[in-house]
Amino acid sequence: MTRSAHRTRRMLQVAGVSAAALLTLSACSSSDTGSDKGSSASSSPKLSGEVTVFAAASLEESFTTLGKEFEKDHPGTKVSFNFGGSDTLAASITNGAPADVFAAASTKTMAVVTDKKDAAGTPATFVRNRLEIATLPGNPDRIASLKDLTKSGLKVVLCDKTVPCGAAAQKALDASGLKLTPVSYEQDVKSALTKVQLKEADAAVVYKTDVRAAGDKVEGVDFSESAKAVNDYPIALLKNSPNPDTAKAFIALVRSAEGQKVLSGAGFLKP
Q1: Which of 33, 129, 166, 218 is the most buried (most CB within 10 A)?
Q2: Is residue 135 predicted with pLDDT exceeding 80?
Q3: Binding positions
Q4: Signal peptide: which range, if any (predicted)?
């Protein structure tokens, strides 16, 4: 064999070894990538289906926003809401109404559900809320304090005492030693606020978040006694949730930094 032929044969041998090595590395890389994808897919199951959320009326604006965000982030899901007085919602749940999540405006109303063993796990407080006096735009009656609501001839509306906003208002009145007879007791905070918006009442004691949501339709008046009647808002997965995985994901969104940003923007306090 000539020196030239020997060199050619040696180069072909080296090229063959290199090609084999490259094929082996490529196969390993492909196998590893496939393994990673399989692991990732199994750890993050695709969410789907409808989630029914029973939530306090004061959460309507912020939860509606979060529901839309959730549906956008998880195509194939739908978030349906039932907003109302927390006591009414709690009673519906304990009477068997189908729902996945309950977000109440007080720990007392959440206790109605947990006492009946209708919640899965321990409820978590996700925000807090304070009261404010809602008056007509421009505050024509010059209301500056809780005591001013006791003025003769002033038409004031309160939430019913069984509703968290009503219980909080009564707590504030008791703390200041004031007696107030409203022209009506409303079943949820939105109904109380509407009375002022329709000029059927001169003022109402509602949440700061509801005054903010109403924009220029009402004017808010802070009062010092509200600090003694701050409500914690708990949220819980319900035991008989038809769609627990998706429900848990919605609760996670509410408690996440993104969810807290939406809620803080609506005027809620951090837990």
Answers
A1: 129
A2: yes
A3: 58, 86, 189, 207
A4: 1-29
